[in-house]
Structure of AraC family transcriptional regulator:
Amino acid sequence: MGRLLENILFENVKLSNDDFTKHYHDTYTIGLTYEGLLKSYNTYQSYTSYEQSIRINNPGEVHCGKSSQWSHVNFYPTVELISNLYEQIFHERKTPFFERHIIDNKELFFKLHIFFNAYFKKEEELVIETLLIDALSSLILSNTIYIKEYKKIFEDKKIVKDTYEFIKDSIDCDFTLDILAKNVNLSKFHFLRLFKKEFGITPHAFIINERLNQANNLIKNGSKISEASLNVGFNDQSHFGRNFKKYFGYSPSYLKK
């Protein structure tokens, strides 16, 4: 596959009944529901992903869900990919964020469906990339609600942003509440209260999620599962595997495959 889709994860899932704990991605999630339902929570609101609907998660949005006989396709385009396409359209390097978690737009659904179909059938690279650009440019033009500076995912959540950058730079360290609160010049009480209010999950869940995101990227880039888990601070392989499945809905070995 060409550089445009290099190391981007695709999923094609039939009749899922999985539950997904609260988590976020450092990429977008774009998916289509073909059958069944996903009852999901995204940024303090509940949604239902139904037949022939499009599902969008922006980078950094906390979401979870409970599926019922849910057949769907997903892919996880990077901020770089979407921002690059935005720049080609509008001639400025920005990160677009999309208006609705669930989109009911049959024309856009069909464009994305044709793209996914071509990808899973392993059609020619030129065909796949043409369909990808057609679908994503339609999404950007029809559903962008606001834009941010390139790669500044948590720019509107200062405590989360500062904590995210601190954790990301020292991902394999043992963080304490004292260390995290001191980093943003707050008491432990106020840090916990404001972090949960701004982001919707606890600092501990945030750290686990970021470790899993980084492990996910390492595995996609060729690292062994054991190496990836150790590099991000997991010393117990079974603990790593359980958390990975709980957060993302698939195992590290599925991702490696």
User: Anything to note?
Assistant: The first helix runs from residue 79 to 90.
